[in-house]
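[recover] target loaded
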């Protein structure tokens, strides 16, 4: 059986849903295809954190330039959140650690405001969302098809998608936003997506409210989520490691020491696999006529969602006008 749609979006993580939501807001016929279940976007802390990402993971070639890119991505969030009914939490972030004056100076050099606190540094420039609530808002009313796409091939002026169950879908345009697992693709596209590598990440959730606003520290972070707290996150090259007990213990120890706690208490581990590229930025753009990429945001999927959506929609609208 073959069905058809205007635009097929493969993948229901933050990038796929952001693209689909912005396309639907413009009146486009969008089919979202995803096998379902938890993904890296749903087990994230939901941070929109250009300041701390720039501070703790600086881009050696041009730290100020990278900071400006991340800040520009953040600045799209107020309009994006209003458009799609997402609660944007602008409570800033605490840096808990040594060298507070040095941290403030480095943030200022990259264009971020920050000031001293008793614990270290407060920066108002990092925001957050509740990831599960935000995914639900972005997916509200979307036409979905459960399943795994195993092949994407050109067909006339559009594309044919084949699902694992055997069904076929014809689409005028396709957005590939499927994390690190890709269907069979044309060779020209495969050469591009081959640069995506997997990074496993896990965070701990505790029902205890350990912080009232996000806190970053050497080796991790703690972020309020619902009535509890998430503590994260590991960065496991190649995907989730089969034995990560030592990484988990180290993460919790960093949090315990930074927050001055005798113990963290029982935690539930949540995990996912994210895509990344060498330059640390998402892989986007039209790679063949009508086939667009929205991939590999590393650990900044939530930060980059509105920007990737805007770029992808502009690319699609440029080729397929209403």
């Amino acid at each position: 059986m073959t069905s058809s749609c205007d635009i097929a979006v493969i993948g229901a993580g933050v990038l796929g849903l952001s693209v689909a939501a912005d396309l639907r807001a413009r009146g486009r016929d969008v089919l979202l295809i995803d096998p379902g279940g938890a993904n890296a976007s749903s087990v994230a802390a939901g941070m929109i954190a250009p300041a701390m990402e720039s501070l703790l993971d600086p881009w050696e070639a041009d730290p100020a330039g990278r900071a400006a890119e991340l800040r520009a991505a953040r600045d799209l969030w107020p309009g994006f959140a209003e458009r799609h009914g997402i609660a944007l939490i602008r409570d800033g972030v605490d840096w808990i650690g040594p060298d507070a004056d040095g941290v403030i100076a480095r943030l200022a050099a990259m264009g971020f405001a920050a000031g001293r606190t008793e614990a270290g540094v407060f920066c108002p420039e990092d925001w957050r969302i509740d990831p599960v609530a935000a995914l639900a808002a972005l997916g509200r009313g979307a036409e979905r098809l459960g399943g795994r796409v195993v092949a994407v091939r050109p067909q006339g002026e559009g594309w044919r998608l084949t699902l694992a169950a055997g069904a076929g879908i014809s689409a005028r345009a396709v957005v590939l936003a499927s994390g690190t697992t890709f269907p069979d693709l044309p060779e020209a596209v495969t050469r591009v997506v081959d640069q995506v590598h997997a990074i496993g990440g896990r965070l701990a959730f505790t029902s205890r409210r350990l912080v009232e606003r996000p806190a970053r520290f050497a080796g991790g972070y703690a972020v309020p989520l619902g009535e509890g707290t998430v503590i994260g996150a590991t960065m496991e090259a190649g995907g989730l490691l089969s034995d990560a007990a030592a990484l988990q213990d180290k993460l919790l120890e960093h949090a315990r020491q930074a927050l001055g706690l005798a113990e963290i208490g029982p935690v539930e581990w949540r995990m996912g696999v994210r895509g990344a590229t060498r330059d640390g930025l998402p892989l986007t753009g039209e790679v063949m006529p009508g086939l667009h990429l929205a991939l590999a945001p590393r650990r900044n999927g939530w930060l980059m969602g509105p920007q990737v959506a805007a770029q992808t929609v502009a690319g699609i609208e440029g080729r397929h006008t209403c």
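[recover] notes: Residues 151 and 184 are 4 Å apart (CA to CA).
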